Amino acid sequence: MPEITVWTKQNKAVLEQLSAKGRFIADARYIRKELEDTTDIMLFIYKWLAAHVPTAVNKPVDVSLPVWVSFTKEATMIPEPGYVVLELKVDSSLVASVNIAKWTIITNYSYIPASREDEKDHNNNLKERGINNADAILTGFYPDLREKIISSWDRLFDSSVDMGSEAAYGLLWEVRKEWIKNVIM
C-alpha cells in the first residue's frame, strides 16, 4: 500500500514515550484527563469506536483505543502550550477514515439516519415519546431506542450513507517513532 502523510496533536509527554518505548498508544487515562466531566460517556463512545473501526481486526493486542490523526496539516488542532503536532508518514492501510459529520452525530449521542425518510421516521418516534436522542442513550428508560441509535452508528463507516460532507479524520492504533517526519511545537 502507498504511504500517506498524516498529522496528530499530542501532549508533549507523548514524545517522551516515543523516545523511551519507540511507540505511543492511546490510553483511557489520557482521555480522562482531557475530557474531564464528559469522560464516562465519551469513553463509552470511544470503546464503541474501537470495537467497530474497520481496522480493528489488525489492532495490536495491547491496544484498546485508537489515536486520532488529520489528513491535512490545516485540519490538525491548533498547537498550544504543552502540546506538539507530529507529522507522520504511514502505510495507508493502517489508517481508518472517520467522517467528521457522522462522528459529530455520535458524540452528540444521536442517530445516524440511513436516509431522509429514516431520519424523519426516527424523529417522529422521538417526538411521539417526548424525548430526544441523548435521553434515549443516557438514561435506562428507553432500551429499544438506545439500541436503535447505537446500531445506527455502524453507518459511520458506510460510505453509501451521505451526511453532506466528505471531511474526515483518521484513526491509527499506534504511533511509531520511525513514522515521525516532523515535530511542530
List keywords for this structure.
single chain; 185 residues; alpha+beta; 3-stranded antiparallel sheet
Structure report:
This protein is α+β, with helices and mostly antiparallel strands and 185 residues long. The protein has one domain. It has helices at residues 13-21, 28-35, 39-52, 100-107, 116-129, 133-138, 143-152; strands spanning 3-11, 23-24, 67-70, 83-91, 96-99, 168-172, 175-176, 180-184. It has a 3-stranded antiparallel sheet with strand order 1-4-8. A 3-stranded antiparallel sheet has the order 3-6-5. Strands 2-7 form a two-stranded antiparallel sheet. It is elongated and about 55 Å long.
Topology at a glance:
Layout: E1 3-11, H1 13-21, E2 23-24, H2 28-35, H3 39-52, E3 67-70, E4 83-91, E5 96-99, H4 100-107, H5 116-129, H6 133-138, H7 143-152, E6 168-172, E7 175-176, E8 180-184
The beta-strand count equals 8
Residue stretches low in confidence (pLDDT < 50, at least 5 long) are: none
Instruction: Give the helix proportion (percent range).
Output: 25-40%
- What is the SS-derived class? alpha+beta
Tell me the number of helical segments per DSSP (H or I, 4 or more residues long).
7
End-to-end distance, in Å? 30 Å
Read across the widest sheet, the strand sequence of neighbours is 1-4-8
- The arrangement of helices and strands along the chain is EHEHHEEEHHHHEEE
Largest sheet: 3 strands, antiparallel
Assign an overall shape.
elongated
- Tally of domains: 1
> Please, what is the average pLDDT?
91
Strand content bin: 15-25%
> Rg, please?
18 Å
